Amino acid sequence: MIYSYIRALAEYALNAGLIQKEDRCYTINRLLEALNLEEYEEPQGAAEAPAVPGNLEDILRGLLDYAADKGILKSNSIVYRDLFDTKLMGLLLPTPSEVIHKFYALYEESPRKATDYYYKLSQDSDYIRRYRIVKDRKWVTKTEYGNIDITINLSKPEKDPKAIAEAKLKKQSGYPKCLLCVENEGYAGRVDHPARQNHRIIPVIINNQEFGFQYSPYVYYNEHCIVLNREHTPMKVDKEAFRKLFDFVKLFPHYFVGSNADLPIVGGSILTHDHFQGGNYAFAMAKAPVEKEFKIKGYEKVQAGIVKWPMSVIRLKSREAEELIELGDYILKSWRNYTDEEAFIYAYSDSPGKILSNREVKERMQSGKGDLEPHNTITPIARRKDGIYEFDLVLRNNVTTKEHPLGVYHPHSELHHIKKENIGLIEVMGLAVLPARLKEEMEELQGAILSGREIGKEEEIYKHKEWMEDFLPKYQEINAENINDILQEEIGLVFLKVLEHAGVYKRDAAGQKGFERFIAQLNNR
């Protein structure tokens, strides 16, 4: 039976274009080596070649079950199975240089042809595990700001307790330095670091620097890509970062690209490695209209306006990317040092954490004290539409208080039962990436609602009780047919509140007046 699975994987690779027919014997022999087999007999007939499913997940499952049975796997757990099937898939792929050569040959025809090839390769190689991605729960919630996307992430496998315990005992490795380093390409992995033998990176030059272009293995949206510095260097949002964004959009005009903010709380999960995220997808924020236009002195050629969005977004438009880079830099520098006590926006605190007024900041700067902790930054997103460059600048602030220790402009505690994690680039644009725990919790909650059962304090879903009691009166009838739609709708509305909490200027009259004060400050020079 094992020979049938080996043949099936070789046929899969051939049909997917990962190997050519001349590579078939070579590939089979490499698979034999990985499986500790010294010989191979081509299965013949139904007896020798029992039916093997044609989909990759089932083929790999058969090979992994054999490896577990023969003791090739250290443990028959998700971690070790992922390490081994990635090794098998890595045996089927062209070398990095071959992939790069083909990518740029296609790029000469069109950037889209190049990315289409590379995206398909990233899926066919099982670097993007299609069969896991389809398990993610996704839906759309209609709001006054447009249709926002909601997803419960189920594609990241959870580590088993044995692997977690082993990882703690292992000597900590500094190689690769992080999950974004180029050294991951071809890396065999370990219990605390994923295998990447089936990973390929395309080199690109942006702002005269060497970067890598790859896809995210978890593809939260269509062609979700990552652009990473070849050097392990910290993220920084500045004029040079803006130039990198537009250089990438010029290379791939069918993609948007953006950066997480460069401060904790409002930034992404990896601030230690300079990188951006992009893709071929139109988020709700990109579709949101400008509701108030304005001009900035010295940059009159640039169209500027406030976007109708729950977070605080300035949109700039121009046919010249350089104009947007210059103006974006001016807005960023202004925002970095902007304090508006009336709007509870503070640019700095001292090292012990005391929030500083404008006067206190000036006094410290004049006295030469350098213990200022910055709080203001920007989440920037660049795209091109019909020959016009667009640049969205989302104003961010990570100040904390005793009432809101995780951030004033972060989901407040009453929303943590749904979303507690950082609001990074993807969420900012209108796509909720919610934790996997919600799947089971919502199923339990459905049962409690339909049965009318009282939820006990000892239960995991008790944290949803107050929220549930708040929304239930809105619905005249709740039954088995509509309960799932109701919960999805209410989760989407919670995420809308998450975005509203993350907005530095609220959507009420006072908040918009505060936004206008900042715009006026930009013209006060």
Descriptive labels:
525 residues; 18 helices; EC 2.7.7.12; carbohydrate metabolism; nucleotidyltransferase
Task: Give structural notes.
There is one protein chain. This protein is α+β, with helices and mostly antiparallel strands and 525 residues long. Among the domains are: 289-408, no CATH class; 436-501, no CATH class. The chain has 18 helices and 15 strands. It has helices at 2-16, 24-34, 45-48, 56-69, 78-90, 96-109, 111-124, 130-133, 161-169, 239-251, 284-287, 321-336, 358-367, 425-428, 437-451, 465-471, 483-502, 509-522; strands at 137-143, 146-152, 202-206, 209-215, 225-229, 256-258, 275-279, 290-294, 303-307, 313-318, 348-350, 372-374, 376-385, 388-397, 431-434. Strands 3-4-5-7-6-13-14-10-9-8 form a 10-stranded antiparallel β-sheet. Strand 8 and strand 9 form a beta hairpin. Helix 1 (2-16) crosses helix 2 (24-34) and helix 6 packs antiparallel against helix 7. Its EC number is 2.7.7.12. It comes from Anaerocolumna xylanovorans DSM 12503.
